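REQUEST ID: PR-0412
SUBMITTED BY: lab tech R.K.
PRIORITY: routine
TASK: structure prediction, single protein chain
INPUT:
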Amino acid sequence: MDDIRLLEVKVLLVEDRPEERVALQRQLGLSKVNAVIVGEAGVDSEALTMMEGLRPDVVLLGLEEPLARPLRILESLTVAGTAPVIAVSSIGDREALRKAMRAGAREYLVKPLKLEDLTKTIDTIIAVERRRRLLLSRGPGTGTLGEVIAVLGAKGGVGKTTLATNLAVALAQETRRRVGVLDLNLEMGDVPIMLDIVPEKTIGDVLGVIDRLDPELLKRFLSSHPSGVQVLSSTGEFKHMNGTTNDEIGRIVEIMAKSFDYVVVDTAPRLRGTFPSVLERSNMVLVVSTPDIPCLKNTRMMLDMLKSQRSYSDKVKLVLNNPYKASGVKPDEAGKVLDYPVFWRVPYDSLVPQCIKVGKPCLEVRARAKISRNLVDLARILSGEARTSRGLFGIFGR
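STATUS: complete
OUTPUT:
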């Protein structure tokens, strides 16, 4: 499976002793943080100059006795507000921790550092900081951001787009709120086919106005479905998407989140085609797998990669889809094979290929079919509108 390019975390080391800087570099290298050391400075005014010039994502600052000087530098770095500061110290008493926090440290780590603690601390801080910047970027009076649900698959043919489109229609039906679908399978997006839509505009057109994109301008590029769902379609011509950046895609997701209460993102098969900004901005990531052995193998690799990025791991939910009457590992065993809990199970239903053929959601063709009821229940769970009548998990054969 192709790996996603992990986002780099730019780190500035502020420490007087060269040997301690080397030790911190070594520990960052051994940790699961994709860290890049952008600069090193002593615990003095040089650190402030470097932070303002290098714009790191996080600062690791050595805090040792006598505390007065490092606390003064820590406070200056905090006032500058460019990046969060993690104090690293061999002093484990409460008074030193209290002084560091009062000076503005976001976290306080005591040596010897544990790799797990270092990784978790940096990942958590980065996730919070990116979320904070995203909220600030909305500006005043723009309202709250909608929920973003990304749908991933470790390979093609797992029912990812079927799930994404039917889930979007179910959310619109059950919540009566604004629902948008973003087709990010840039090479072969099938969302318009699944919903029988012929888009006049696509994401390729949006990229032409990305610098001035806002919710009002976005409306010009959306296609409407009778359910009320609005779709931003893939271009279908990947050559026109060459050079598309992660930030541009993140901007589109952000504007859609401002425009809708729920945004369902249908991604490309495999992690290679999934932009990191989509995962960052998603409130939930549904990983769809089928119970056949090759797909389970790829799915496990995908789950391991997502789990390695701790800022993503809490969002990831496994959906086991059964598009065939009988095949592969039994549903109850799939979670054990993947070493990951199954969040939702989608049953086999012969209605699905019929719906794909005519380009209509299952809910529209036969609302009482087991696949339709299953996805309505999933929409209710994700939206918090109501519990399902038969518990949290969709059940095979319902």
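NOTES: Residues 1-5, 386-398 have pLDDT under 50 and may be disordered.
REVIEWED BY: pending
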